[in-house]
Amino acid sequence: AQSVTQPDIHITVSEGASLELRCNYSYGATPYLFWYVQSPGQGLQLLLKYFSGDTLVQGIKGFEAEFKRSQSSFNLRKPSVHWSDAAEYFCAVGARGSYIPTFGRGTSLIVHP
Amino acid sequence: NAGVMQNPRHLVRRRGQEARLRCSPMKGHSHVYWYRQLPEEGLKFMVYLQKENIIDESGMPKERFSAEFPKEGPSILRIQQVVRGDSAAYFCASSLSGTAGDTQYFGPGTRLTVL
Questions:
Q1: Which residues 90-109 in chain B show a CB within 8 A of chain A?
Q2: Cβ contact, residue pair A43, B56, below 8 Å
Q3: What is the pLDDT along chain A (113 residues), one digit of tens a residue?
Q4: Whole-Å CA distances, B21 to A1, B6, B11
Q5: Min distance B64 CA to chain A CA atoms (Å)
Q6: Which of A8, A81, A88 is nearest to A40 (CA)?
């Protein structure tokens, strides 16, 4: 079975600074990988996903993520954070042939003005 | 172009009462998934339904919990005789095809509080 780890529970950055949120997964083959964002009191919104091909994936709101097979990682990045990016971020991994992704416990992003 | 809708957004029940949570998928979607989120935890899969059928209920407790997705109307997650441990946010998601890796679109959730 697949699993996913988000090692950072909280991340604090200043507005305008760069951001990297870590995600490591465990799966025997190439998985499907997702990043979702959850604003307070809201549902999850898909930022980006990786299925195959180019390992650098562009998403919405200026986010990108890079799939690194050798490190079993799928870290989320943004070059310049805005105050509105403050939210909970979830990485999810899906096994090939499975319709149910496994979610990490999330990373809470705090943005200082 | 409505997204996934859930109601109620907040639900308060006393121990022993029943909770009914409703989910209307995106237009054209016939695959519905229910998840539970406890504080400071990720989403835990509960059940996957397609119109009139339960496809996978491996994440749903065997007792007190049930789900349905009738031919007409929303999907319903029903919790009988609620206990304090049922307090959580319950999210519904829908997808177009139900195939592996298919994007799931989430509703805003129902926050259940059991007194």
A1: 91, 93, 95, 98-109
A2: no
A3: 788 999 999 999 999 999 999 999 998 788 899 999 999 888 899 999 998 888 999 999 999 999 999 999 999 999 999 999 999 999 999 887 777 889 999 999 999 98
A4: 30, 7, 9
A5: 23
A6: A88
